[in-house]
Amino acid sequence: MPLTIRPATPADADAVAKIWYHGWQDGHLGNVPDALVRVRTRESFRERASDHVCDTTVAEVTGEVAGFVMVAGEEVEQVFVSSDHRGSGVAGALLAEAERLVRDGGHSCAWLAVAPGNARARRFYERCGWVDEGLFDNQAFGPDGPISVPCHRYVKDL
């Protein structure tokens, strides 16, 4: 499986949005407040993917976007892999790239937020050496202002 990690381009936004929407549904439905579910429409993911191209790195497998990460400062904001590529090493490669981007940005520690019920993601981060610092109140973007979402804060020294 030839895997390429590269910065996203505007042409990747639709593929990123599709992976993001389906992955978000898998990991978040039943694990986040209904107010957040209501505003996370397919269109919202398309808009956000287009708006965050500069912060996005994609993984390509045989020329197709298989997953992505978004990094802002010391935060790994998003990590999603298409269902077709889960378990193939794509997520690990993307997370390693996210860690490199955080480190190259001058930060010695990275962090990310995970919904408590997203057990698959929590196990993955722990296997990759991330440490759960406990619950905190994450402020997720909403069209009418932040939406409070209880999350676990995971950190990793770089």
Automatic annotation (TrEMBL):
SUPFAM superfamilies documented for this protein: Acyl-CoA N-acyltransferases (Nat)
Span of domain N-acetyltransferase: 3-152
Record keyword Hydrolase present: no
Keyword Transferase: yes
InterPro entries: Acyl_CoA_acyltransferase, Bact_Acetyltransf, GNAT_dom
Organism listed in the record: Amycolatopsis alba DSM 44262
PROSITE patterns, A to Z: GNAT
Record keywords: Acyltransferase, Transferase
Protein name, as recorded: GNAT family N-acetyltransferase
Gene Ontology MF term list: acyltransferase activity, transferring groups other than amino-acyl groups
